Amino acid sequence: MEEPLTGAMLIAGGLTLIVVGALIGALFNRTLINRRLTAADRTAETILGEATVRGEKIEKEYERKAEEEYKRQLGRAEKENQNLVDKFERELSKRREQIDKRERKLDSRRSALDRKLEDLEKREGGFEEREREIDDIRERLEKKQGAVEEIRTETKRRCEAISGLTQDEAKKLLLQNLEVDVRQDAAALVRRVEAETREVADKKARQLITLAIQRCAAEQVSESSVSVVQLPSDDLKGRIIGREGRNIRALEAATGCNFIVDDTPEAVVLSCFDPIRREIARQTLERLVSDGRIHPGRIEELVAKVERELNEHIRQTGEEAAFELGFADMHPELTKTMGRLKYRTSYGQNILSHSSEVARLCSYMAGELGADSAAAKRAGFLHDIGKALTHEMEGTHAALGADLCKKHNEAPGVVHSIAAHHNEIEPRTIIAVLVQAADAISSARPGARRETLENYVKRLRKLEELADGFDGVTKSYALQAGRELRIVVEPTEINDNEASLLARDISRKIEKEVQYPGQIKVTVCREVRATEYAK
């Protein structure tokens, strides 16, 4: 009977099985790992082979691209080099052409110099011959002069022997005999010289005034006491008047000017005796029309702004006029007052321009007479400064201007010239007289103070109508303020000879029917045109 298995035997058997199992598992794992390693080696070899092949392809591709880029750069460089060579050859050819031209010019100049040198050599030979001739003539003249001296000495000796007097005694006797005659002639000469002096002085004065006028040929523009503001359209007239006239009342109240809105197309007339207020009203209305906002509040705002700007403009204008004449030391109040004269006129003549013109005339005449031209110029510039104050103060403009200049420390001679330029006091200095003369010249010369605009327009219209009344006249134009009448005639009705007769007939009719200053030039224009059409 077999013995039963004990627990130790079971344990030993189990352990044996576990060990055997572990060994078998280890062998299996090792086999599996070896297989995987073998597969990994094969994979790595495959990848390495593919990478090597791909690297070789990439290397060849880059080598190909590098070779193509090298060839392209080489071609571009060769092209640029060829362009530079061509450009250099063109420049070289141009330089050669220029050098050839200069060489030709030098050759021509060398030839010209050679010709001139030959001419000079010929002239030099002629000069030598002339010098020899002159030397011969000089010798003959010296011989003749010696003979003349001998004859003079012999003549003098014979005269002394005949008269029994020496040369000095004869001179003394001759002077004694001539003394009485000389005294009588001297008295007559003095009277004649006095008369000629008066005549020459009068002529010199006329010449002096004429010279001063010629040197001071300033333009003058006729101005009026009204201003006209042009409107873009007549629709704005209603807006300017406003509802129940409130806008135009606000304008008149703020500016002190009359606004005349009538049937005149696209225009508003401003009327005021004060030119500065009229200028403020004109600028205000122009800005209102440009802005488009027209109401009492805006009107008051613009009037205040325009007044400030105009005062500044007046100050700058006075300073510019004074600086132009060289018065850098004039008191600011005087320059500001002179600036106001830009908006003051006398019979259409601007007072500031008139004052500058008088200043120059005084300076020119004082310089010709040897007087103080600087003081004369200053007195002429300030002589009408009182006209800027006549609207504000009582008194004549000469007295007001003299008081103002005296207040601001102007020289006594200048103040006296201002006060005396209208003979309100007797002029006591030459500068005062020159200011009177320059003032009269500037005011009375032709074109300074012109006729009214209405008479001016009527005269021009009458000239054109008079010319249009003649047969054969197509159109006539009055030019240069009526100093020239240009007439266009029909060439088929008026020939060249008849054109001259027509000009004379029109000028005669103008002399009979039209009153005008100076003279009027009548020009008849006849033009013949031949026209054909090419078909």
Task: Characterise this structure.
With 535 residues, this protein is mainly alpha-helical. Among the domains are: 167-214; 226-444, Ribosomal Protein S8, Chain: A, domain 1 (2-Layer Sandwich); 453-525, K homology (KH) domain (GMP Synthetase, Chain A, domain 3, 2-Layer Sandwich). It has helices at residues 7-163, 167-215, 235-241, 246-255, 275-291, 296-324, 332-340, 351-369, 373-382, 397-407, 412-420, 430-444, 453-468, 496-513; strands at 226-230, 258-260, 267-271, 345-346, 349-350, 473-479, 484-489, 521-525. A three-stranded antiparallel sheet has the order 1-3-2, covered by helices on one side. β4 (345-346) and β5 form a beta hairpin. α8 (351-369) runs antiparallel to α9 (373-382), α9 packs across α11 (412-420) and α11 packs across α12. The chain starts with 6 loop residues before the first helix and ends in a 10-residue tail after the last strand.
For the structure shown, list the relevant keywords.
Ribosomal Protein S8, Chain: A, domain 1, 7% strand, 3-stranded mixed beta sheet, 3-stranded antiparallel beta sheet, GMP Synthetase, Chain A, domain 3, extended, 14 helices
Could you say which structural class the secondary elements and strand pairing correspond to? mainly alpha
- Proportion of β residues? 5-15%
- The Cα radius of gyration reads 56 Å
The count of strands amounts to 8
Total helices: the number is 14
Question: What would you call the shape?
Answer: extended
Strand order of the largest sheet: 1-3-2
CA(first)-CA(last) distance: 157 Å
Task: Return the CATH topology of the domain at 226-444.
Answer: Ribosomal Protein S8, Chain: A, domain 1
Order of helices and strands: HHEHHEEHHHEEHHHHHHEEHE
The CATH architecture of the domain at 226-444 can be given as 2-Layer Sandwich
Arithmetic mean pLDDT: 79
Low-pLDDT segments, ≥5 res: 216-223
